[in-house]
């Protein structure tokens, strides 16, 4: 079954760091722009960052800009999200996914992070930021 598999979440104190990983299972992700999404408790899932197929174009939403860094290693079929200076409002389940119709982060971002393939959603990884 083709799916993304997220890992690296956990409980961390405010100001701490985590590195999330997003691996593609059953397919290769090197043709696609990849987005990271966050679903905070009681809220809808939202896109927070994306990286183009080449890795050269990146986007962050304002509330993670300067704290989070997205990267990818196509040879390992994996995308990463380094999260520093974590805040309680970063708490949520983190997912990754791709819009298979684009390799462009710009397009993915401009669409409002829409078009992610439903079948590729994984279980996500839980990040809890608490004292």
Task: Explain how this protein is built.
There is one protein chain. The protein has 131 residues and is mainly beta. Helices cover 5% and strands 42% of the residues. It contains one helix and ten strands. The protein has one helix at residues 105-110; strands at 3-7, 10-12, 18-25, 34-39, 46-51, 58-60, 68-73, 78-83, 92-98, 125-129. Strand 7 (68-73) and strand 8 form a beta hairpin. The longest helix has 6 residues, at 105-110.
Q: Features of this protein?
A:
about 130 residues; mainly beta; 6-stranded mixed beta sheet; 4-stranded antiparallel beta sheet; 10 strands; globular
In a nutshell, what does this entry contain?
The protein is mainly beta and 131 residues long. It has one helix at residues 105-110, and strands at 3-7, 10-12, 18-25, 34-39, 46-51, 58-60, 68-73, 78-83, 92-98, 125-129.
């Amino acid at each position: 079954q083709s799916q993304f598999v997220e890992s690296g979440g956990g409980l961390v104190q405010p100001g701490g760091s985590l590195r999330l990983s997003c691996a593609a299972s059953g397919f290769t992700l090197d043709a696609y722009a990849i987005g990271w999404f966050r679903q905070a408790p009681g809220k809808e899932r939202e896109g927070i960052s994306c990286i183009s197929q080449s890795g050269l174009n990146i986007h962050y939403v304002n509330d993670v800009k300067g704290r989070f860094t997205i990267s990818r290693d196509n040879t390992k079929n994996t995308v990463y999200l380094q999260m520093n200076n974590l805040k309680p409002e970063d708490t949520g389940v983190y997912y990754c996914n791709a819009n298979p119709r684009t390799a462009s982060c710009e397009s993915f971002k401009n669409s409002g992070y829409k078009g992610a393939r439903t079948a590729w959603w994984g279980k996500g990884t839980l990040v809890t930021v608490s004292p």
